[in-house]
Each structure stands twice: as C-alpha cells, then as structure tokens.
Automatic annotation (TrEMBL):
<dbReference type="InterPro" id="IPR051533">
    <property type="entry name" value="WaaL-like"/>
</dbReference>
<dbReference type="Pfam" id="PF04932">
    <property type="entry name" value="Wzy_C"/>
</dbReference>
<feature type="transmembrane region" description="Helical">
    <location>
        <begin position="144"/>
        <end position="164"/>
    </location>
</feature>
<feature type="domain" description="O-antigen ligase-related">
    <location>
        <begin position="202"/>
        <end position="337"/>
    </location>
</feature>
<feature type="transmembrane region" description="Helical">
    <location>
        <begin position="241"/>
        <end position="263"/>
    </location>
</feature>
<keyword id="KW-0436">Ligase</keyword>
<feature type="transmembrane region" description="Helical">
    <location>
        <begin position="119"/>
        <end position="138"/>
    </location>
</feature>
<protein>
    <submittedName>
        <fullName>O-antigen ligase family protein</fullName>
    </submittedName>
</protein>
<feature type="transmembrane region" description="Helical">
    <location>
        <begin position="176"/>
        <end position="193"/>
    </location>
</feature>
<keyword id="KW-1133">Transmembrane helix</keyword>
<dbReference type="GO" id="GO:0016020">
    <property type="term" value="C:membrane"/>
</dbReference>
<feature type="transmembrane region" description="Helical">
    <location>
        <begin position="199"/>
        <end position="229"/>
    </location>
</feature>
<feature type="transmembrane region" description="Helical">
    <location>
        <begin position="379"/>
        <end position="396"/>
    </location>
</feature>
<keyword id="KW-0472">Membrane</keyword>
<feature type="transmembrane region" description="Helical">
    <location>
        <begin position="355"/>
        <end position="373"/>
    </location>
</feature>
<dbReference type="GO" id="GO:0016874">
    <property type="term" value="F:ligase activity"/>
</dbReference>
<dbReference type="InterPro" id="IPR007016">
    <property type="entry name" value="O-antigen_ligase-rel_domated"/>
</dbReference>
Length: 407
C-alpha cells in the first residue's frame, strides 16, 4: 500500500473522528486540517520523486476540468467577498475549509488516487465503521475498556412491541453515519460487481445492511436509485440511463413544485412526504430574497434563516442548493448549480466512453445530488459528508489518476 493511499485513509479517518463523540468540533477541524496537510505533502513528494524532479520544484498534482474548475473559482471568489464584507473568526475558518480544503478534495485527490483506489478505500472504511456500529443494534450504547465505542440514535420500532437501537457508531449525529454507509455501499458494490473481489462483496453487504438499519430516507433513496440506474444501464444502454435520470429529475421538480403550490396537485401529499422541510425551504428562500445579489456571506446560515421561520425551532436549511443561494446570493447559487450539473454531465460522459468505474462514478454523483436535496451540507466543509461529496465531484472529471484497473 502506497503512502498516498495511507494518507487517503487518514483523511477519511480524520473527517469521521472530527464528528465523533470523542472530540470537540474545534479539535476535530484541527485534525482534519493536519490530515490534509499530510496528504498534500506526501502527494507532492511522491509525484516529484516519480518524475525525478528536485523537491525545490513545486509540482502539486491536480486535474481541473473547466466545467468544474470555473464554477468552483466563482464560488471561492463569492466566499472571499462574503468574508471581507462580514469578517469574523468563524467566517475565516469556513473560508479556509470552503476554498483550500475543497480545492484539494476536488482537484488534487483525484489526480493522485485513482477511482478504483478511492472507491475501495471508502467502501472498506465504511464497512469498518459498520462493524463498530453493529453491536449497538442489540446492546444500545456500549463501551470497551471504559471507552464508548457505539452509541444509539434512538429506537426504531418495527412493530408496536418490537424494535431495535438505531446505530450511530462513534458519530455525534446519525446523519453523518447514514451518508457514509450509503456512499460506502455504492463504492463497494461498484467494485464488487466489476472486479468480483470477495472482500468488496463482504463490504457491500455490511454497508447495505447498515443503510437499512440506520433508517435514513435520503440514504435509502440514494442507494435504491443507484441500484436502479445500474440495472437500467446493464439491461439497456446509455440512452436509457439518460432518459431515466432525466425523468427522475423531472419527478423531483414536480413534487417540490406541488409542495410549494407552484404547480397544481395534491399539495398536502407533497408536504407529508417532505415534512417540515417545506417550511425550512420557504424560510431559506425568504432569506435569499432579502439579499438576492451577494447573499449573507459565511455567517451561521441556520441563525439567519431562523429569522424568517416563525413556526418554531429551525434545524437548518435542509437543502444544499438553497443554502448556497443564502450564502452567496444569485451568483453563488447559480455557480453551485452549474458545478453540480457539470459533474453529472461529465460522469455520464464517463459512462458513455466506457471509462473504468464510470457507472459507479455516475451513481455516486446522482446519490450526492439526492442527499443535497435534503441536507444542508454542501461539498464545502470538513464534515465527512461534505468531503465525500467533494471527492465524488472531483472523480466526475475525465482527467483523474490513471491507476484504474481496466477489465
């Protein structure tokens, strides 16, 4: 195992531990920053040695397709302007994570770690976390040698009398665990069905089982859609894949439109499916409308949106796309939509061109876009969900590391 692969595992571990019950967010963010520094240093040294260059020559590997790079640069500029207009220490932390760390995740990691290597690492790491979380189902919160290893996110009732503890592993919130096991399921499944690696098959089963046990609607939906897209492509072609994806996008748009009363239809049915999110999204839109040009900057988005939500406690925007409109106004929101759309198109092109693990990449991009419909986290940040989605966007680019196995 190369040092860059070890450093990649360290990235995953630091992002997970940073959201754990063991450390504060400040300590966790410092750990993530250190892991990124280690990864960047090792990547620089290994690539320089491979090319027989002097270490004095700065040669940081990167891949940057214009369709991804240009919207990202626009967003970085928007974030910087937001910080200048409303500076604070918290905003400064966000600015660093939203620019430097995202640049490494999207443009450096895919140039150093191949799709196969990254997907394998994510699948294995997720399966390892699944093993940690599984005893919680039967034991609830449990400790080993006085150290708390697994915690429960509540009880899920199968019937009125039968239920189990929902595992959250060592995460301080089960939502991060749900994203990890869902992405891990798609990664390990993609590798298993392409390479028939028995270890990936085991990881796939473990991750899929945990997706079910954590009962996250977005994670279950993302995995089901990924599986359905795989079946459509295997028994159809790229045209069928494009058609099903387009139809799915239209269905989402119609449901959201009906829920908000923009389109005619059973409004209450849409609200029953989306729950309080309709109110959260409405408040987020009102916050954007109050500052439609430059947005509110890198301040606490939930605190800002809560001023437009009179119905009780607001827990966040619960929509990544709306959150970027709140943060960066029209410019930031449109740039983020373009970045996500570009990633989807590039991933589809990878499927069409029969790029190794192109279908897995496409399914991962679709899954990331689904998650962001219901989660306020974006591809910018230090949370494990943000990091994973940033990796996915990066691997949609065609000029990634060429270490993939063709077969």
């Amino acid at each position: 195992m190369s040092r860059t692969i070890v450093a990649f595992y360290l990235l995953l571990l630091s992002c997970a531990i940073g959201l754990s019950i063991y450390f504060s967010r400040l300590i966790g963010n410092i750990g993530v920053l250190a892991a990124y520094g280690i990864f960047l240093t090792i990547s620089f040294v290994e690539v320089t040695n491979r090319q027989s260059r002097s270490l004095s020559e700065i040669n940081i590997p990167s891949c940057h397709h214009p369709a991804i790079f240009i919207p990202a640069v626009v967003l970085w500029v928007v974030f910087t302007i937001g910080y200048i207009l409303d500076p604070s220490f918290r905003a400064f932390q966000r600015l660093g994570a939203f620019t430097i760390l995202s640049a490494i995740s999207i443009f450096v990691v895919p140039a150093v770690i191949s799709r196969e290597q990254a997907f394998r690492a994510i699948g294995i790491f997720s399966a390892a976390c699944t093993i940690v979380g599984f005893p919680t189902v039967f034991l609830g919160d449990y400790t080993i040698l006085g150290l708390k290893f697994g915690q429960s996110a509540g009880v899920h009732l199968i019937t009125s009398n039968i239920g189990y503890s929902v595992p959250a592993a060592f995460f301080d919130s089960v939502k991060y665990y749900r994203v990890l096991v869902a992405i891990g399921t798609i990664c390990s499944g993609g590798l298993y069905f392409r390479t028939r690696d028995s270890w990936m098959g085991i990881a796939f089963v473990l991750n899929l089982f945990m997706v079910v046990l954590t009962v996250g609607r977005a994670s279950i939906l993302a995995v089901i859609v990924a599986g359905f897209l795989t079946i459509v492509y295997r028994f159809g072609n790229t045209r069928a894949l494009a058609g099903v994806t387009l139809i799915g996008g239209c269905i989402v748009a119609v449901v959201v439109g009906i829920s908000f009363g923009i389109l005619p239809g059973p409004t209450e049915l849409g609200k029953s499916l989306l729950g309080k999110r309709v109110g959260f999204w409405s408040a987020s839109y009102q916050a954007f409308a109050a500052r439609p040009i430059i947005g509110w900057g890198l301040a606490d988005t939930a605190a800002i949106v809560s001023e437009f939500y009179p119905l009780g406690t607001l827990t966040g925007t619960h929509n990544s796309y709306l959150r970027l409109f709140v943060i960066g106004g029209s410019v930031g929101g449109v740039a983020y939509l373009l970045l996500c759309a570009s990633a989807l198109l590039l991933a589809f092109q990878a499927v069409r061109d029969h790029v190794p693990f192109g279908l897995t990449t496409f399914c991962l991009v679709v899954a990331a876009l689904i998650f962001q419909l219901f989660d306020g986290a974006t591809i910018f940040g230090t949370a494990i969900s943000s990091i994973l989605w940033a990796f996915v966007i990066g691997y949609a680019q065609p000029t990634v590391s060429s270490g993939d196995t063709v077969g």
